[in-house]
Amino acid sequence: MTEQTINILLVDDDELVLKALSRSLSRLYEHAVIVSLQHSEEFERCLHEQGEPDIIFCEVQLGAVSGLDVLSRAKVLCPCAIRCLLSGDLQEEYRFQVNDTIHFHLVKPFTHTHLQQVITNTLILKSLPLSQLTRVKLGQIAGLPCLTASISGLMEALQHGSPDINELVELLNHDPALVGKLLQIANSAFMGYQTHTADVKEAIVRIGLVALKALVTCYEMSQLFINRLKQAQIEALIDEALEKALMVKSLTRYLKQSSDKQQNAFACCLLSAVGVLTKECVLPRHASNSVSSYALAAYLLALWGFDESLVRAQLVNDLPPEPYVSLTLLHAISEQVTQKKAFDLTPELYSRLQVCAQYDAVKAWYQEREHKVE
User: Fold this and answer.
1) pLDDT for position 52
2) What is the spatial distance between Cα 330 and Cα 126, in angstroms, rounded to a whole number?
3) pLDDT tens string 44-76
4) I want to staple 88 with a disulfide (CB 3.0 to 4.6 A). Which of 108, 297, 351, 360 is the partner?
5) Which pLDDT score, from 0 to 100, does residue 2 have?
6) What is the CA radius of gyration of the chain?
7) The pLDDT of residue 285
8) What pLDDT score does 191 carry?
9) Strand pairing partners for 82?
10) Helical packing angle, 231-254 and 327-340, nearest 10°
11) The domain 6-127 belongs to what CATH superfamily?
12) What is the pLDDT of residue 151?
């Protein structure tokens, strides 16, 4: 991933800011090709001469011109670019974050961590096996959810590398509905535990922090879309993803995958609800087939800073060629089994499992699972 070139366009009427930002970005990523533009009226000419950038950093106020207007033009002229608005006003954070013209709002003085996040997320997006047409459509969709605009204290705590479990318990206890869903998952037979628990802390330990973050993400998504879809419909869509997640948990446990792999597979399947909910709530009915829910999920999760493996694994229609059981393959198997309610795999899935020498094991898992259900 570090070998990819990133083309960055900086737009600011302050020459000193341009130099400082260019220097910082060059230090953060040596393969960055940076173009600075001091006069916003030359924006379109710059695109014509330099080509489409991967990232645009644009100051909010460029003399008499609004940076939002520049990025609105960018959404049309170079929709694949990640659009970042720079400002010094923290009070405008919410308004900018819910504005679907931009992907990131960076408040001055921004840190290297903020800049690195934009670079990392862009690299993940560039690495995804998405067609140019799909990228254009994703970049131009209006009304995509912005998770950071309404981020809760719970999600903020989960963003830390090693969150305090007791703090998570306290935050979770403020939301009985979320606690109920957590306990439902922790006590599912697919999780493999013999005893029932009503303890929130133990439930967190059972499902793991990666899976908990996925659950909280889906829950916060449901809050964002509460005015666009009936609560029962939202819950039904999330429950479908949860069924798939519990299915893959059972499969990975049977295949004796590592604990981390089991957690990631569960989280990956549950996070597929992000794409399904977004497609249902954002895309017009006549355009609902223009972008798949898989591409939507991968795009949004990359922008929100999720791990690359979880992002890539959303694209179940484009299985990676690795000769081992990847997260994408596990997701695809779980989706097929859940949707068809039978062990009826596609020829491609059958072929991939044969290459991995896991077809017989997966079939045995399904037969054993069906026997237990009976």
Assistant:
1) 95
2) 23
3) 999 999 999 999 999 998 888 889 999 999 999
4) 108
5) 47
6) 22
7) 63
8) 85
9) 55
10) 120
11) Response regulator (3.40.50.2300)
12) 53
- For residue 313, the model assigns a pLDDT of 97
What was the pLDDT predicted at 94? Answer: 45
Which one-letter amino acid corresponds to residue 252?
T
Structure tokens at 290: 């223009």
Parse the chain into domains and list their residue ranges: 6-127, 161-373
Candidates 205, 210, 195; CA nearest to 267 is: 210
What is d(CA 172, CA 363) in angstroms, rounded to the nearest whole number?
38
| 3-class DSSP string for the chain | CCCCCEEEEEECCCHHHHHHHHHHHHHHCCCEEEEEECCHHHHHHHHHHHCCCCEEEEECEECCEEHHHHHHHHHHHCCCCEEEEEECCHHHHHHHHCCCCCCEEEECCCCHHHHHHHHHHHHHHHHCCCCHHHHHHHHHCCCCCCHHHHCCHHHHHHHCCCCCHHHHHHHHCCCHHHHHHHHHHHCCHHHCCCCCCCCHHHHHHHHCHHHHHHHHHHHHHHHHCCCCCCHHHHHHHHHHHHHHHHHHHHHHHHCCCCHHHHHHHHHHHHHHHHHHHHHHHHCCHHHCCCCCHHHHHHHHHHHCCCCHHHHHCCCCCCCCCCCCCCHHHHHHHHHHHHHHCCCCCCHHHHHHHHHCCCHHHHHHHHHHHHHHHC
Dist. CA 150–CA 107, nearest whole Å: 17
Fold (CATH) for 161-373: Hypothetical protein af1432 (1.10.3210)
Shortest CA distance to 108 belongs to which of 12, 29, 41, 31?
12
Instruction: Tell me what pLDDT residue 143 has.
Output: 82
CB–CB of 84/56 below 8 Å? yes
How far, in Å, CA of 364 to CA of 301, rounded?
Answer: 33
Name residues of the chain where pLDDT drops below 50: 1-2, 94, 149-150
pLDDT in tens, 310-335: 999 999 999 998 889 999 999 999 99
Nearest-CA neighbor of 355 among 320, 331, 327?
Answer: 320
